[in-house]
Amino acid sequence: MRRRTAATTIALLAAIFIAACNDSPTQTATVTPASSPGDAVTVEPREPIVIGVSVALSGDQVVVGEDLANAVDLAIADFNRPIRGHAIASRREDDGCNDAEKASAAAKVLAATSNVAGVVGPMCTTGAQAANDVYESAGVIHITPSATRNDLSAQGERDFFRTAWRDDAQAQAQASYALGPLSADTAVVIDDGDPYGRTLADAFIATFEAGGGRVLSRERIVRGTTDFAATGRQIASTEPDVVVFEGFDPEGALLAGDLQAGGFTGTFIGPDSLLNLGDFVVAAGEAAEGAIITGGPVPDEAFTARFTEKYGHAPATAFVLQAYDATRVLLTAIETVAVEGEDGELLIDREQMDDALRSQTFASLTGTIRFDEHGDRAGTSARESGLSIYRVAGGRFELVE
Questions:
Q1: CB 378 within 8 A of CB 370
Q2: DSSP strand E in 261-367: where?
Q3: 244 with 204: CB under 8 angstroms?
Q4: pTM for this predicted structure
Q5: Residue 304 to residue 307: CA distance in whole angstroms
Q6: Looking at the domain that runs over 40-165+299-359, which CATH code has it been given?
Q7: Which residues are registered as beta bridge partners of 348?
């Protein structure tokens, strides 16, 4: 999860954070030792099947965390049927976003809850890094809707999945669009020194150069800098076709403005951290026009209306769609493998769930989902990775691919 999450719907929300209003009840289940890895989740008669939810329920990301949890509950409501006679409920635990201790503690609670059939989360990369071993040791499938760092899926874990994209998939989509529709031959690539920005910049350069593009320079800015006038003039003087900034706002908006002031006439490209109407488009003003920004699909009017009716506010993050999809994917896999035991209990075999997730193709709000052997979304195109490409036009984000 990026520290500045997209607050964009089709109606284009004016700010990233909107006051939360959570009226969705969650199920509190008895905490008892869970099955060993490879065993079946056992749901006793008259008990619900529980979907665990690991998100920030405290701290500066609480609004986003609660909206992700609300999206899980909305998906459960839309599923609208029991599985083998068992109702479906959710259980929320606070993972603090990038709080490793909280994320690990949340994972231990959910992994020890006998009727938790799977978990949506963790929400953020650092939390996921801390919690993944807990889930893996317990054999608990967990699907993160919002942690995009590449190496989360590189540990050989069987029970890790994500409906979000990988950072390198986003950078590859940027480079492919630059080489294709933009017909770019040259680029200047800038990152902000954070792991997110460095990873994206490295992957963009690799894909762009492999496709025949030429990187004129690789630059790095310092977070907190407010004046990029000299940088803008220097970069503009090299006349690149595209300038690619991999980092966050406010630096993204400031850099776009100073590039324009310095005489840059090419196309500005940025990642999902800039997919924000207030922090990027409004802040950059005219300099944002024509910018290409990558990120996930944003909720359409129908989803936004249903979410608003149920929770009293529009979604504060586009990642609600990935959380919704993760829930539906889990429920579909559970329904595929769940069987009734001899004493009326429901048995959900963990290994069969893993196999079901990897062998099935799921229609979803963020596009068709197929998981590869690492639990990442399979495919080579932006759409298959769950990504969209937007152009800023008339002060709005317009979908172009």
A1: yes
A2: 267-270, 292-295, 339-340, 346-349
A3: yes
A4: 0.86
A5: 5
A6: 3.40.50.2300
A7: 41
